[in-house]
Each structure stands twice: as structure tokens, then as C-alpha cells.
Design brief:
This protein has a domain of 185 residues: Rossmann fold. The strands form three sheets. It has a six-stranded mixed beta sheet. A four-stranded parallel beta sheet has the order 8-7-6-9, sandwiched between helices. A three-stranded antiparallel beta sheet has the order 2-1-3, with no helix packed on it. It is globular and about 50 Å long. It is α/β, with parallel strands linked by helices. The longest helix is centred in the C-terminal third of the chain and has 17 residues. It has twelve helices and 13 strands.
Amino acid sequence: MKYVCANCKATAEVTTRAAKCDCGGLWKLDYKPPQFDLSLVDRETWSIFRYRAFMPLEGEYWREISLGEGMTPIVPFDEDVLLKMDYFMPTLSFKDRGAAVLIAHCKAIGVDSVVQDSSGNAGNSVAAYCGKAGIDCEIFVPEGTSPKKINMIQAHNGHVNVVPGSRDNCANVCRDKVVKEGKYYASHVYNPFFYQGTKTYIYETYEQLHRIPANILIPLGNGTLVIGVIKALEELLGSGVIEKMPQIILVQSEYCDPFVKAVQVKAKSAAMNTTPRPTMAEGIAIGIPMRSEEILEYIYKYDIKLIAAPEDRILDARMILAAKGIYCEHTTAANYAAYLKYCEVYGKTSDCLIPICGAGLKSDH
């Protein structure tokens, strides 16, 4: 198992502290799991690590890192929509899937201090798992981040830096520190171990439903859930567990939609395709997605649809969900707002799985 540069194909050991290749390309992970089979699932382990037979784990460090993340229920919302309740997590967001695996990797290779940038949820997850692992943690967040998310990071003993400007500027400030001070970059965007955790979203779905829904809707900012979902679906497809890819529907904010604009002109990169405006969907407000080329390859390969969530319908969507007991944060409500818009554009869309990514109390501001 090695890192492979997405650009020049150079390789490196996974023990490297380098956040990316010398050429500037981001790492991919050269790892192929065994064929997916439910008989290999450890049903005595109640966390994402029940799927460790299909994950690139080093040693048994996951045992001292896990906070019981995963195994979130799938509940019917109406006759057309299923909700995967991923805010039933230790830090109340789906990012715990990736953070648990990434920090287990950090522990395995002896990392004792990390930095990371986030709109809030990923930083909170990394801080929590670093707290469990005894790893020092510094998180950079953009101005406007929910105070409650900041409070949670600090409660996990993470040091918080609030950076003026956009989410993209926040990432640049954090990466400058990585370069200047040689810090380990525990990034949910750069580090491919993170996606080895988010792919359990699909493993769980298959185990729980004994099938994959016809339509899978996923929010798209940096693409941490998108990449994990597609990797897992490819594994199921390659193992003969499913016969075809479901229709994947990716959600962006209409105020920050670089992928929507890139696909309109069949571009190979989504960098600098939009100037973000302030949006309630802060979790997907990424103007310069670092893995845009990789994600666009998936979009074109699998005929993935994209839809922009109407900003003026996010609060209405949140109220509809809350009225039925689902109190989610604004970015998650954008998923449902986008689903309703998708149905208006493409017609009735049944058997659709939507992730409930973050809890509502995190974005009451």
C-alpha cells in the first residue's frame, strides 16, 4: 500500500509527512480491498470498523480511536425518500466516518500534532478523534462559522483560528502553516485515508437495506462524501454485489456552484469557476475544490446529475424536515431543497437516499 500522485504518478510510503507530491499533485491511495462480502463483516463490532476487512488499517490502533461512529439508521421520510441519519454520530456529523480512519492512521505512523482547515464539521470531528488519540490539534475555520461548532472544537481541546474571508482563504492560510512549519496536514480533502472512512456510508446502506437505492443524493463541496460513496459503489459493482450504478445526484449551493458551471462547459477542472457568495449551506461553500479533476472524471464516467439548491428554499426545507422530527443544520436542509428542485426539473424521483449530514443545533446562528 502506497500513495500515488494524481498528477505525475510518483509514489510515496503512507508514512510520509508530505501533504502532497513534490509536483503539487494530491495523493491517491494504492489500495484494493478484497471483494465485498457480508460474511467478512464483523457484526460484533458496532462502528464503521465492522468493515475493517475492506479498509486499509494499520495494526489495531482503530480500537483506541473509535468513538462508536457509524451504523446510523435509514428511515423512510415519505413514499419517495429515505434518510440516512448520519447526524447520529459522536460529533453530530457524517465527517466522523473519515476522521476516525484518518486519525487512526495518524496514530499508527506516530503523528503527535496536526493542523486542519474546515467549515466546522470536519474540524470538529478531527478535534474529537485527536482528543481520543492524545494528538495535539489546531483547526482553522473561516469567519462566519457557527459559534456552536467552534465551541465543540474547543471542548475537544482543539485550538481554533478564525480566519477572515472565505472558506477557500481559510484553507490557504492553514496550508501556508503546513509548508512553513512542517505540520502534519490532517486534511479531509488532501488525505485519502479520509475517504476510506466515508465509503462506509455505502457499506452500511447495503447491509441495512440488502440493496442500493435507485437514486443516491450527496452534497458536494470538497467532495469528501462523494468520493467515498463512489469508491464503495465501485467496490460493490466489482464484487458483483450490485449490477449497475445507481443514479447519483450531487448538490451544490446556487451561491457556490463551481461543479455545476464546470459541467455546463464540459470542463476538466472546477477551480475558479465561481466567486462564492455567502450561503446558509456553509458546509458546501467551496469555490476552489482541490480534487475537482478527480470528481469531474467520476461525473462524466457515470453520467452523474448535478442540481443547485435554491438559497431561498433552504429554510423552508429545514422547516419541512423539522416538522417530521428531523432537526438538521442548514447545509443538510439544502440537500432536501435541492431534491425538491430536482423533482421539478426531472420529474418524480422515487427510491432516493438523502444523507442527514449534520444536526440542527450546530447551525442555529
